[in-house]
Amino acid sequence: MTRSHESRDGMVDHDAMRSAREQLSHAAYSAKNTALEYGNHFVAEPAKDLVGLLQDYAKSRPDVAAAWCFGIGLYIGWKLRP
Fold first, then answer.
1. Where does the pLDDT of residue 3 fall: very low under 50, low under 70, confident under 90, or very high at 90 and above?
2. Separation between Cα atoms, residue 24 and residue 42, nearest integer Å
3. DSSP conformational letter for 5
4. What does DSSP assign to residue 13?
């Protein structure tokens, strides 16, 4: 059984259509905000955690961190040379 927005005399019920439009708009807005929230959390938070972990490791073992930076820089420089 389908529900129509027509009253018994064949006229369209504008209030019901306006209400349905507002509900749909609110649901879409809510879904957009939820998606943005989750996107920011799952992209930004792990990156902050990783940077924090690397900073803590570099503070506790600066010699090893310096060796890694030198090695990575040497490798990138070797690959980028003309």
1. low
2. 27
3. S
4. -
